[in-house]
Protein: Alpha-1,4 glucan phosphorylase
Organism: Lates calcarifer
Amino acid sequence: MATPLTDQEKRKQISIRGIVGVENVAELKKSFNRHLHFTLVKDRNIATPRDYYFALAHTVRDHLVGRWIRTQQFYYEADPKRVYYLSLEFYMGRTLQNTMINLGLQNFIENRSSCFLDSMATLGLAAYGYGIRYEYGIFNQKIRDGWQVEEADDWLRHGNPWEKARPEYMLDGSKWVDTQVVLAMPYDTPIPGYMNNTVNTMRLWSARAPNDFNLRDFNVGDYIQAVLDRNLAENISRVLYPNDNFFEGKELRLKQEYFVVAATLQDIIRRFKTTKKGTPGRTSFESFPDKVAIQLNDTHPAMAIPELMRIFVDIEKLDWDTAWDLTRRTFAYTNHTVLPEALERWPVELLETLLPRHLQIIYQINQSHLDRISALFPNNIDKLRKMSLIEEDGCKRVNMAHLCIVGSHAVNGVAEIHSNIIKTEVFRDFSELEPEKFQNKTNGITPRRWLLLCNPGLAELIAEVIGEDYVKDLGQLEKLNDFVDDAAFIRDVSKVKQDNKLKFAQYLENEYRVKINPSSMFDVHVKRIHEYKRQLLNCLHIITMYNRIRKNPTAPFVPRTVIIGGKAAPGYHMAKMIIKLITSVGEVVNNDPVVGNKLKVIFLENYRVSLAEKVIPATDLSEQISTAGTEASGTGNMKFMLNGALTIGTMDGANVEMAEEAGEENLFIFGMRVEDVAELDKKGYDAMSYYKKIPELKEVMDQITSGFFSPKNPELFKDLTNMLFKYDRFKVFADFEAYMKCQEKVSKLYQNPTEWTKMVIKNIAATGKFSSDRTITEYATEVWGVKPTDLKIPPPNEPRESIKNHKPT
Ligand SMILES: *Cc1c(COP(=O)(O)O)cnc(C)c1O
């Protein structure tokens, strides 16, 4: 047998096989050298690692181009129904520092959208992602003295080898009433499917001032000032709003939302018209919903509904009822959260000044909507008030979720439990009115990025026992159930995990000079920092373990490395205090000689996709501990499960379905269920009663309150403790006891490596449902009315008579 491949070689091989296709290696080398020389203008003596990465990226891109053009030609010819995925959260991550290792590929920061694009291309759908090309993406997080500090993410500084600007397709981005025209410049990025010759397009818009910007107004005047003022227009695509599950209501954000909508709809209509061959003269829009599906990722692109109505009625001169029928049949809406502070409610006053015609249209939509409700529920003012698109209490606002529900033919949540909450609570009146509209589409993740690329060792091991087909059909993982008792397979699975842990420990040592114990349990809690995700509950557990060790230093203890990471929204005070508490506890625990190697607390700086790819494969225990009813689905939970971590979690979001798939006995499920939370709300949650009743909780809280972890500033955490005692919406104390007990069960099982790994294998075998291929197949058939793999794109080197006279679409 040949020497086994290193991870790096496996990754490279899989990347090349999967994304580029099997190409001549000598050709690849030549192309690489050509790019280093001509594109980057470097020789090997002075080339930096980034130059090598860019040369490689250009080489890979070259190999996509043929397929990319071919795919788009094919769509133009076959004219299938197009699927448009609109999101304010597409974001290409920084180009990677490290050369060969990351052979590739788009590195997105936002989880939900990128998996879907991958799956849409893999399933051969004629799909497009549309969004904004932010000049500054999600900030980089630095930890200074234990506090989060934000830095701008200047990700375009060195250029982006994946994108292609298309200035020739520049469009009007918007005409604000109070300012001038803003142009939208498209940047296209190829989205390759897995081994199927399909390359779809993600088109991101960048705001540009027209060359005559402000010059007509200022004609006699200030040319210099007019050029400087171009920034006003171009600021629209400057920066991604970093809020997570929070609606801020800023004017610039509304401009962003309308900007992407205005440019995208023009593009969609143009494509619809150009692919309608043989119909000269006035376009018929009758077939529009048969040719176009638009998926609204959250309410952020909701202005697309009044915008399409405006185009149909004002420009294309359709009558209102026809336009409304077409519009509703075109749109579908995905809800992503039930937290009230996250729901978008734009002030009428702001819409009045910025988008008065759209406001008129919204009013008219609301009028017919309310007329219908009045007819069905006569004299029911309360019903009208609850279902109106316009909220009248306090400042008048447009409820964007209501607009999306009324303007779509399908509305979905992202996990069973979440979709049920939507139907029975948040949008109950709407689901009673149109029950057939409400659906569930449980989220998923792409096994290409979240197994093949990030964990080649495990991917390869699985392929050895069940073959490679599982990559495109993740349900096949259930075949692993035959190997649960296979001693060799158990040994190999645990070896892969141990290798990943060693590698991650090495990474921490190189980058941060922190040493961790690689034989300890890696207990990982990485996701955005938010009260509802309850990093605080984890923190209370850490302190409890610490107190137990100090009280009984010689008692047996299952060593743990607790790794917590995530960004706090810059304006979210409580989330930033949570980070400071974690780092402060780490400071004390990590430097206490009594603790030694038993317990370490690491705050993982700047958690992002590229770091997720490193830490998730190295994780033993995945923390998914949100208050039941608050996490819509989660996707982190699925990534960990696929990578051989066990889950400690509440019955929330997709955890419920993970437990259903793997069997509840194969997860560490604890705490209140949704019903228990509702009951506790009814009787009133009294944090103090738990504090008085549970000695270990009392001790922990007394330590935080008295400044045990902040000796220089004993008052430091008083906002935080005050919240926990007096107004904790997420009921941390109510789950404290159950969580501690459950963690003891985790430690106990970890002492038996064979039993632990058997449970790991059962979990991996049960992960099939959580492929985004399954999610997208459901959207395709149940929402968009298209069939996956309807279209087979031929390979680029195989001439096809029928593709000629190509017009770009
Ligand atoms: C998957 C992912 C998330 C989502 O994690 P949840 O646990 O579902 O909140 C967030 N950030 C990054 C970088 C991710 O990769």
About this structure: Residues 111, 527-528, 607-609, 612, 634-636, 639 surround pyridoxal-5'-phosphate (CB under 6 Å). The domain at 468-768 is CATH 3.40.50.2000 (Rossmann fold). The chain has two domains: 65-443+777-784, 468-768. Residues 49-78 form the longest helix (30 residues).
